[in-house]
Amino acid sequence: MMRMKTKATALPTATHGRSASGGGGEPAAREWELRPGGMLVQKRNPDSDRISIPPPNIRVRVKYGSVYHEIHINPQATFGELKKMLTGPTGLHHQDQKLLYKDKARDSKAFLDMAGVKDKSKIVLIEDELSQEKRLLEMRKNAKMEKASKSISEISLEIDRLAGRVSALESIISKGGRVGEKDLVTLIELLMNQLLKLDAIMADGDVKLQRKLQVKRVQKYVETLDILKIKNSMPSNDGVQAQHRHTNGQKLAPIQEPQQSRHSGSDGVVVTTKWETFDSSPASVPVPSTSTSKANNSVQPKFPWEFFD
């Protein structure tokens, strides 16, 4: 009877063991994960974390210099979260902090409970000079980039203003007008000054791309002004514009050939502005002698002629 009762009581235990192992005699397989602290632990189930009650906070004593700071924190928090909580009491930036637990520096991503931190555990806080130097260098770099970006924005506004003047001069010259040579030269000098300002800016990353874009804009406008300068110095082939330029806005009257002739009152010679075109071998025209015309009008002279029989 005793043996049979023992077997009967042992049977549920075996059945329970089989059910716990998934219906077979082998134990269920477990999943493992590597925590940031370097420890290999069983993988946590997110659903079980939601259902389970979070553990109560613990008190840790953090020594900074000669002062102890008591912090209430969740044991499943990270050392990085503890550093952020110490920023207020210590006045030290969380990136400049180094936490030592059991004489070993702890990574900011490591968990307190995985490192063995418990209630009333003692942690030492020291200032990380190397991290502080890196952070200051990063801050200076960011401030420099911000200043460079602001300078490029101001130069861009000035280039936009000069671009409007370039467009106005281009419109005038393209329509055949003339502008002062000094205006073109002055505008080119202003653009070159902006180009020198851009070259003096040291930038990296996106700010460098912005500077390169503005440099290309300035070079484009300078090339446009060089072409306009050549066009502005060339003489115009338009006769109407040339006539307008020489007469200062007054129209020239058309040249008409006079139709009336002028007569000489004394000699009876006719003078006219109409010219006749003759052949290459014109016929000779006899010109009457003045002596003959005078002889006809005068008395015949008498000579002492002798007559002989």
Automatic annotation (TrEMBL):
Annotated stretches, region: Disordered: 1-54, 278-299
Superkingdom assignment: Eukaryota
Keywords annotated in UniProt: Chaperone
Entry-linked InterPro entries: BAG_chaperone_regulator (IPR039773), BAG_dom_sf (IPR036533), BAG_domain (IPR003103), Ubiquitin-like_dom (IPR000626), Ubiquitin-like_domsf (IPR029071)
Key word Chaperone present: yes
The UniProt record lists the keyword Chaperone: yes
Ranges of compositional bias, category Low complexity: 280-293
Start and end residues of each BAG domain: 151-229
GO MF annotation: an example: protein-folding chaperone binding
GO terms under biological process: protein stabilization
All residue ranges annotated as the Ubiquitin-like domain in the record: 56-132
A GO term from the CC aspect: cytoplasm
Function: Co-chaperone that regulates diverse cellular pathways, such as programmed cell death and stress responses.
The name this protein goes by in its record: BCL-2-associated athanogene 1
Lineage: Eukaryota, Viridiplantae, Streptophyta, Embryophyta, Tracheophyta
